[in-house]
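Example 3.2
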Amino acid sequence: MEEIWNAIAKSFDSTRKEPWEECLNFIEKIRGRAIDIGCGNGRHLFPLAEKAELAVGLDFSIEMLKICKEKLRNICNVLLVCGNACRLPFKDNSFDYAIFIAALHNIRGRGNRIKALVELKRILKPNGTALISVWAKWQDKWRWYFIKKLFSFKGEHGDIYIPWKKDGINVERFYHLYSKKEFKKDLIKAGLKIEKLWSVKKASKKHPDNHFAIVKAEK
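Structure, written as tokens:
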């Protein structure tokens, strides 16, 4: 998995320039220590660093982190860490806030995704707050694919390999696309308190293509 994201890092960076409005709205209230889990090319890490006392960017792709480092080279309150979301290399109660944007859905296996959410809860301080997003299963682009697979799907319904075909690269990335109900169920299973759960259309015209949740780590 890391090899795929390392291979597409520069190409991926060219398509992910602007931070999402939902993330900027959440980041606006951040103070203290914050972490961006699955920070990718750092498009949300930069505004995070403007608000936080310390902003940590974690990703398992070293090439993505190299891109982050170059973009954030003049910012002194950012720490970049190469690591796995299922085994976060931080002590309990380390952060006041977290964002986990468009990355949970790249983890294979429900058990591992829940483990990542449990790890998120562990590193947040009591009543620490996080914003999480995942791709929606029933979005316009993939809706009929998953409808056709309802009774013949092997593995977890929602699993899909999505090709990256750009700049001479042709590889397939693993995704698990979520229904809103499933997303809610996994957040609760991980012990997170849901404050807000909603869906939005980023590229879709009819059906939402992303689910967002604001959660708290009650301890």
